[in-house]
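Title: Request for sanity check on Aldo/keto reductase prediction

Description:
We are preparing a figure and want to confirm that the structure record we downloaded matches what your pipeline produces today. Could someone re-run it with the sequence below and paste the raw structure tokens into this thread? We only need the token string, no images.
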Amino acid sequence: MTKGATPAQVALAWLLVQKPWIVPIPGTAKLEHLDANLGALEVELTAADMREIDESVSKHEVQGARSSEELLQATDVGARLGTSSVGGHGMSSLPRK
């Protein structure tokens, strides 16, 4: 894929088009990295781009848990207690479209 963008910009752009409740929060200690991250807002991914990325990602098997068991227990406690995400899907309280 040729977008004239950095891999980080493409990754952030990909995240931005996934679901409305997925909000990437990239961390940086340098202003030039912040500027580069903001450049992801200018990256326009086509349906063909999305297919190319998805096909590439699907070739790799995810290994291990996304977080430690302790951290997972603290994730969206409200959903398990019935105080948030009620009627939601995938731990999100946003309505399905």
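Thanks, this matches our download. The chain has a mean pLDDT of 82.
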